[in-house]
UniProtKB/TrEMBL annotation:
This is Kinesin-like protein. ATP binds at G95, Q96, T97, G98, S99, G100, K101, T102. Belongs to the TRAFAC class myosin-kinesin ATPase superfamily. Kinesin family. Gene3D superfamilies: Kinesin motor domain. Keywords: ATP-binding, Coiled coil, Microtubule, Motor protein, Nucleotide-binding. GO terms for molecular function: ATP binding; microtubule binding; microtubule motor activity. It holds the Pfam family Kinesin. GO terms for cellular component: centriole; cytoplasm; microtubule; nucleus. Residues 1-376 form the Kinesin motor domain. Residues 297-324 are annotated as: Disordered. It comes from Catagonus wagneri. GO terms for biological process: microtubule-based movement; spindle assembly.
Length: 451
């Protein structure tokens, strides 16, 4: 987990109570500090939290100041390399309002954040990969969750009333938003245009309903598909990258919201549930690790399962069954991020905090959340789609025909020539068999054209 600090409250005269020491973030309790040796007070003066990375971005003059580029070099490149290998990735920013979530995820025109840098990296990577036997297709979508309603930020309705989309669950692909628009992008400029369009819609929507933007969660998703040749056979590697800018976490504290859950519209149910999901997953992961160490001597060779198993009622028959139920479906955000939070995705949580003493309890709560989330064990897996045997037959046939035609005519085939028919048929049959996205054809078409 990662920690990022911002300067807003220091400008308002707050005393700095957070410091970063390598990969450790330390927070000082001034109330305990005020008493001689903290006598009669059981609270810690300084509490330290260890993370994978800690960033200090309070003062640009400071030698340890972490710029957007430093954050990208650590986290953004991890996202890019994971996506290239075919993992689903989720990167989300969590923290109190004004602590720098949007700054970290999106940035400003002069200080570009993680999302645009990751998009740029995907296109650079594609250019880098050009001589390799691969070709990529990139699609994006952008949605907002506000008061448990999902809105497409890239497809606005003509009517004044914003329309909402439904979340559904596919038995294999998991939860998805029905009717969410996906946009094919072929260069960085197109992504930035869509990103800006979505951000503008997000802000407009927030003003329209008279709420601060911090009350909505924005999820920018990149669908990155690569067509590669492995041992001369076609293979598709797909990765979904979720980049999430969450609402302010002050509404995530269950004690803050407990009495108000029934108030409905005013409560950010998604953040409350996210907190519950994170702490339950962390607990389950701890149970899971202790189970593993307990059972290591009695190794039965079986798969002990992911700690996020939704079937979590306790029956007392074994330690693995003491795992708690995870209420993903209690909120739209956690349902949509189900795989990212406790499933097959690589997930990075960026916790942003204010260093000012006035934010002590919020900062403490965010650091505890991040520390908790660090204990979650996911089981990332590569998303590969291998062609069916029928497709392979077609593909081999095509290869033979292509070599034969080149041999006989010594002629450069163009994509519209009849010689491409078998190849087309082979992917059509694949589509028919698997019911996959028709545009996959273009990925392979590009791919073959590059060979
Ligand atoms: N590391 C930083 N360096 C410089 N300015 C920053 C930094 N982090 C945040 N800011 C600035 O602080 C202000 C608040 O940041 P930001 O909008 O990112 O907060 P937020 O956590 O997204 O808030 P909200 O939950 O309300 O959306 C912005 O003007 C932003 O540009």
């Amino acid at each position: 987990m990662d920690l990022c600090l911002v300067s807003r409250e220091t400008k308002e005269g707050g005393r700095i109570i957070v410091e970063v020491d390598g990969k450790v973030a330390k927070i000082r309790n001034l109330k305990v500090d005020g008493r001689p040796d903290g006598f009669g007070d059981s609270r810690e003066k300084v509490v330290a939290f260890g993370f994978d990375y800690c960033y200090w971005s309070v003062n640009p003059e400071d030698p340890q100041y972490a710029s957007q580029d430093v954050v990208f070099q650590d986290l953004g490149t991890e996202v890019l390399s994971g996506a290239a290998k075919g993992y689903n990735i989720c990167l989300f920013a969590y923290g109190q309002t004004g602590s720098g979530k949007t700054y970290t995820m999106l940035g400003t025109p002069v200080s570009v954040g993680l999302t645009p840098r990751i998009c740029e990296g995907l296109f650079l990577r594609e250019d880098d990969c050009a001589p390799l036997p691969s070709s990529c297709r990139i699609k994006v979508s952008f949605l907002e969750i506000y008061n448990e309603r999902v809105r497409d930020l890239l497809k606005q309705s003509d009517q004044k009333k914003a329309y909402t989309l439904r979340v559904r669950e596919h038995p294999e692909m998991g939860p998805y938003v029905q009717g969410l628009s996906q946009h094919v992008v072929t260069n960085y400029k197109q992504v930035i245009q869509l990103l800006e369009e979505g951000i503008a819609n997000r802000i407009t929507a927030a003003t329209h309903v008279h709420e601060a933007s911090s009350r909505s969660h924005a999820i920018f998703t990149i669908y990155y598909t690569q067509a590669v040749l492995e041992n001369n056979l076609p293979l598709e590697i797909a990765s979904k990258i979720n980049l999430v800018d969450l609402a302010g976490s002050e509404r995530a504290d269950p004690s803050y919201c407990k009495d108000r859950l029934t108030e409905g519209a005013n409560i950010n149910k998604s953040l409350v549930t996210l907190g519950i999901v994170i702490s339950t997953l962390a607990q389950n992961s701890q149970v899971f690790s202790s189970c593993q160490s307990l059972s290591s001597s009695a190794s039965d060779g079986g798969d002990s399962g992911v700690p996020s198993s939704p079937s979590g009622t306790s029956s007392g028959r074994g330690p693995s069954q003491r795992q708690s139920y995870i209420p993903y479906r209690d909120s739209v955000l956690t349902w949509l991020l189900k795989d990212s939070l406790g499933g097959n995705s690589r997930t990075i949580m960026v916790a942003t905090v204010s260093p000012a003493h006035t934010s002590y309890s919020e900062t403490m709560s965010t650091l505890r959340y991040a520390s908790n989330a660090k204990n979650i064990i996911n089981k990332p897996r590569v998303n590969e789609v291998r062609p069916s045997s029928e497709v392979l037959v077609w593909y081999s046939l095509h290869q033979v025909l292509l070599s034969f035609s080149l041999f006989i005519t010594n002629w450069e085939p163009d994509t519209y020539s009849p010689i491409y028919m078998p190849w087309r048929l082979c992917y059509l049959s694949d589509l028919l068999l698997k019911g996959r996205d028709f545009s996959n054809i273009s990925v392979y078409q590009n791919h073959l054209e590059r060979l």
